[in-house]
């Protein structure tokens, strides 16, 4: 990202609605393997403006891997091996906070993890020592600010705060679960924010989430959540997300 001194490629993990990145000037595509298995898709290498980028489709291309079956360890390790040290995770989310309705963009600053049973650490097996990484601030402050500045510069409404509640899925939540999550302090709900963020941290990579709200969370509107509503919000909001990515990489 442009304001960072580091000239390593930036990793972009695209989620629902972002299986390809149209503005990317593609220079190569590589199917890779890692010690943790196969990533969701080949790595697509290219340039966004002046910035080298490695794009990875989280759910595969075509979109076929559900959130609880994504091999997050292979994805993060593959990006690391490709030289990536800063990762932007693009995530479709449900909105809990009253200002975070469909098509709204959020750069969250905190996480509460409700996922279970997902391989969520590289530190297991035959270890020399036990490691507990610091995870007080799961998202990189500088990368967050770059995205927020990009949104402001292009006039895209964007919330610069938010607690991302990561749920197991693949089902959506009950209304009572959302009430509980709101009580816990969650502003957004999604299924892919964890363990992606912590695995990046374990590898020493900077990680930031770019969240696109695609529906009101369960019980937050007068209707049940439909795929039409989700696709409509993606159509409306994804150009802002892509614009933020392009602008934050420029220069
Ligand atoms: N809940 C969980 N994950 C989601 C949602 C939701 O409402 N919308 C998009 N991803």
Automatic annotation (TrEMBL):
Annotated GO CC locations: cytosol
Pfam families in UniProt: PNP_UDP_1
GO molecular function, one term: S-methyl-5-thioadenosine phosphorylase activity
Signal peptide: none
Binding site for phosphate: 16, 58-59, 192
Biological process per Gene Ontology, one example term: L-methionine salvage from methylthioadenosine
Record-linked CDD domains: MTAP_SsMTAPII_like_MTIP (cd09010)
Marked site: Important for substrate specificity: 173, 227
Record key words, sorted: Glycosyltransferase, Purine salvage, Transferase
The reaction(s) this protein catalyses: S-methyl-5'-thioinosine + phosphate = 5-(methylsulfanyl)-alpha-D-ribose 1-phosphate + hypoxanthine
InterPro entries hit by this protein: MTAP, Nucleoside_phosphorylase_d, Nucleoside_phosphorylase_sf, Purine_phosphorylase-2_CS
Enzyme class name: transferase
EC number assigned by the record: 2.4.2.44
Keyword flag Oxidoreductase: no
Pathway(s) per entry: Purine metabolism; purine nucleoside salvage
UniProt domain Nucleoside phosphorylase: residue ranges: 9-236
Source organism, top-level taxon: Bacteria
Family named by the database record: Belongs to the PNP/MTAP phosphorylase family. MTAP subfamily.
Miscellaneous comment as given in the Swiss-Prot or TrEMBL entry: Although this enzyme belongs to the family of MTA phosphorylases based on sequence homology, it has been shown that conserved amino acid substitutions in the substrate binding pocket convert the substrate specificity of this enzyme from 6-aminopurines to 6-oxopurines.
Function, in words: Catalyzes the reversible phosphorylation of S-methyl-5'-thioinosine (MTI) to hypoxanthine and 5-methylthioribose-1-phosphate. Involved in the breakdown of S-methyl-5'-thioadenosine (MTA), a major by-product of polyamine biosynthesis. Catabolism of (MTA) occurs via deamination to MTI and phosphorolysis to hypoxanthine.
Record's subunit section: Homotrimer.
Protein name per its UniProtKB record: Probable S-methyl-5'-thioinosine phosphorylase
């Amino acid at each position: 990202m442009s304001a960072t001194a580091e000239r390593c490629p930036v990793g972009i993990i695209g989620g629902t609605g972002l299986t390809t990145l149209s503005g990317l000037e593609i220079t190569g595509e590589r199917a890779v393997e890692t010690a943790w298995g196969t990533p969701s898709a080949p790595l697509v290498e290219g340039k966004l403006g002046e910035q080298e980028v490695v794009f990875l489709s989280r759910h595969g291309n075509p979109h076929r891997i559900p959130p609880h079956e994504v091999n997050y360890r292979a994805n993060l390790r593959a990006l690391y091996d490709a030289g990536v040290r800063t990762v932007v995770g693009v995530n479709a989310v449900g909105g809990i906070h009253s200002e975070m309705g469909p098509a709204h963009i959020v750069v969250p600053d905190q996480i509460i993890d409700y996922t279970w049973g997902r391989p969520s650490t590289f530190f297991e097996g035959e270890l020399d020592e036990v490691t507990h990484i610091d995870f007080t601030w799961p998202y990189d402050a500088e990368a967050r600010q770059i995205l927020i500045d990009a949104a402001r510069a292009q006039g895209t409404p964007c919330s610069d705060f938010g607690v991302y509640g990561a749920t197991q899925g693949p089902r959506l939540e009950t209304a009572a679960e959302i009430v509980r999550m709101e009580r816990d302090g969650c502003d957004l709900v999604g299924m892919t924010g964890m363990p992606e963020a912590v695995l990046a941290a374990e590898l020493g990579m900077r990680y930031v989430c770019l969240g696109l709200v695609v529906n009101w969370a369960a019980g937050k509107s007068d209707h049940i959540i439909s795929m039409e509503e989700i696709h409509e919000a993606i159509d409306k909001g994804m150009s802002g997300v892509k614009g933020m990515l392009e602008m934050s990489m420029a220069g």
